[in-house]
Structure formats: structure tokens, C-alpha cells
Design a protein that fits this description.
mainly alpha, Arc Repressor Mutant, subunit A, Leucine-rich Repeat Variant, 3 domains, 17 helices, 3 strands, 66% helix, disordered C terminus
């Protein structure tokens, strides 16, 4: 019963899938996954074989029939309520009467807490991170924050923090220095989410998040080294791997926090916001640009203003928050005007 629930949840989370992808995402043995797929064949739409052969050959790809999605979702909710809770699901007390957290989100969190650290090969870690990222995009960008139940929103923040932590860990195999810089920010993000879970009465999930961060072997470099390495950051921002570009954006913010808010670095982040094809990188860029408050650059504000109207919800919300942060600080021109006025009236 539990294996069936995991596979069905993975089907809804992935949208389209192969048997190996379902097994990878759900943690269920491939043979069991094949059995579930065979029994659910009437609810699935064949999409043909994969264009490229991977390990094991070209696998058949399926998706859930649109008319069956709601039926499977209802069945999952019934299974969810019937399952024995060996490990309590982290649901804040004030939201116990609300709809349960989508199973795909809970599975993605569990995957990054437990399975990602155990994955030995880099390609397997990339695959797990991409699967979890697809869940975050689907739920995090599907509805405005105010329309999400509080419990679901908290778990999405947890998933986002775990995703950033795992991105930093994975990026160490490509750009060790910038990954180490980004790690502290990811750890702080998890700490804040853990505090929210603890405040909501879910200390067990809070402890899981903190333990996951503390178990990482990534360490942060001194601030002085960060300042010295800023000239290498533009290359990392252009890296072919999405997660490397994302941690490089975080590294720029760390450099600014270390006393080197270079206008050139800000311009590179603006380019990521304007041109990057991945919404996670654009969102990270939108978040980071809100921290460049010391020397307000009109180009930064223009880029954020445009991003605040973009189709991708997560990018749009991040841009609006950063614009609000910038507006809370006076511009360089305003600072100069105030200084001149003070001098003239002295």
C-alpha cells in the first residue's frame, strides 16, 4: 500500500515520467514501479520512447490522463489519511484542520534530507535535485502565496532551503569556492525555516532540517578570501550548469556583504535576471539584487521593475520584495541632497 502511494504521488509530481524516473523519485524498487504502472495503465497516456537512450536503453514515457488526475489525487488523500504515521508529517498545529500538504512536496523534502546525501554519483545527485526542483517550481510558482495554505507554504520554504543547500553541495564538484560561499546562506535559510517549524510545534521536522545542514561537509571561506575572489565570479555566473549559476549569484551577495558591493558584480547579476533561461537562477538574482542597497543603481531598479511583471510567479514575487527593500533605503542622489542641505543650514 505504501509503495503504491509513493508511486502515484511521484506520477502526479513529475507530470510525465519513465519507470526509472518513478523509481528514482519515489525510492520504490523498479520492479514494484512496473507493477503499479501496469495496473494503472488505463489511467496513463503513452508518450512514446525517449528520444535519447540513457543507461538501460530508451524507456517508454507516460503521463497521467488529464481526466484521471483528480481521481488519483483523491485516492492519494484517502491513502494519506489511512497510512500509519511512523514518522509524523511536519504540519504546524494551527493548520491541522486544513488540507494535507501535497504528497509530492513531502516526498521531495524527504528525498533531499535522506537520499541526496547517500547518492554517490554526481549524475544521480543532479537527477534528484532536478526532480525536487520540478516539484518546487510546480507548487511554488503555481499559486500566489496568499492562496497557499499556511502549512503548504511552510513546507515549500523548507523544500526551497533544502534545494539551495543541495545545490551548494553539488556545485562543489564544479566550482568549490563559490559553492562554499553560497553554503552559509543556504544554511541560514534552513535555520529560519526550522525556527518557524519549531514555533509551530513541530520540533521533530525542525531538528531534521538543522541536522541535515550540520551534517554537510561544506565549509565557508573567510570574508577576506571572498573579497579577493570577486574577479572570478563573472565566469561562474556564466557556467553551463544551472545550480552553479545559482550558487554564483548567492556568492555575489556574500561578496557584497563582505564589503565589496561592486557595481560590476551587480551588473552581472542583472544580466542573469534578464537573460537566464532557468527560473531558479532568475529568482535568485531577483532576491540578491535587493541586497545592493548601499549604492542604488538605476539599472538594478529598472531590471527589478521589469522582472516584477514577468510570467514566472516566483521571479515576480522575489523582484517585488527586492524593490520594496530598495525603496526602504534612500538613493545616492537623495543622500547627497540631504548632506548638502545639512551643510547649507549648518
Amino acid at each position: 500500500m505504501i509503495e503504491r502511494y509513493k508511486v502515484l504521488g511521484a506520477m502526479l509530481a513529475l507530470g510525465d515520467f519513465t519507470v526509472p524516473e518513478l523509481a528514482q523519485y519515489s525510492g520504490v524498487r523498479p520492479q514494484t514501479v512496473r507493477t503499479v504502472v501496469t495496473r494503472e495503465r488505463r489511467n496513463l497516456k503513452p508518450l512514446g520512447k525517449e528520444a535519447r537512450a540513457g543507461r538501460g536503453g530508451r524507456f517508454k514515457r507516460f503521463q497521467v490522463q488529464l481526466a484521471q488526475v483528480e481521481d488519483i489525487r483523491q485516492e492519494l488523500n484517502e491513502l494519506y489519511r489511512a497510512l500509519p504515521r511512523e514518522r509524523p508529517v511536519a504540519v504546524p498545529q494551527q493548520s491541522l484542520e486544513s488540507e494535507p500538504v501535497p504528497l509530492a512536496i513531502l516526498a521531495a523534502e524527504d528525498m533531499l534530507i535522506r537520499r541526496f546525501p547517500e547518492a554517490g554519483e554526481r549524475e544521480e545527485r543532479k537527477r534528484l535535485l532536478n526532480l525536487a526542483g520540478s516539484v518546487w517550481v510546480r507548487y511554488g510558482s503555481g499559486l500566489p502565496e496568499e492562496e497557499l495554505p499556511g502549512t503548504t507554504r511552510l513546507h515549500l520554504e523548507s523544500l526551497d532551503g533544502l534545494r539551495k543547500l543541495c545545490s551548494a553541495e553539488l556545485a562543489t564538484t564544479y566550482e568549490p569556492f563559490f559553492a562554499r560561499v553560497a553554503f552559509d546562506r543556504a544554511k541560514e535559510s534552513l535555520r529560519l525555516v526550522a525556527a518557524a517549524f519549531k514555533q509551530a510545534g513541530q520540533a521533530e521536522h525542525a531538528a531534521e532540517l538543522l541536522d541535515r545542514a550540520l551534517a554537510s561537509t561544506v565549509s565557508s571561506p573567510p570574508a577576506e578570501i571572498v573579497r579577493q575572489k570577486t574577479e572570478d565570479m563573472p565566469n561562474a555566473l556564466e557556467h553551463s550548469e544551472v545550480f552553479v549559476r545559482e550558487v554564483a549569484v548567492q556568492a555575489v551577495a556574500a561578496a557584497a556583504g563582505a564589503g565589496n558591493p561592486s557595481p560590476q558584480l551587480a551588473s552581472h547579476v542583472v544580466l542573469r535576471l534578464q537573460q537566464d533561461t532557468d527560473p531558479a537562477v532568475r529568482r535568485a538574482a531577483a532576491e540578491v539584487l535587493g541586497e545592493f542597497t548601499k549604492d542604488r543603481d538605476p539599472a538594478v531598479e529598472r531590471a527589478l521593475t521589469k522582472a516584477a511583471q514577468e510570467d514566472e510567479l516566483s521571479v515576480r514575487l522575489a523582484a517585488r520584495k527586492s524593490l520594496a527593500a530598495l525603496e526602504a533605503y534612500p538613493s545616492a542622489e537623495a543622500d547627497k541632497a540631504v548632506s548638502n542641505q545639512a551643510f547649507e543650514t549648518a
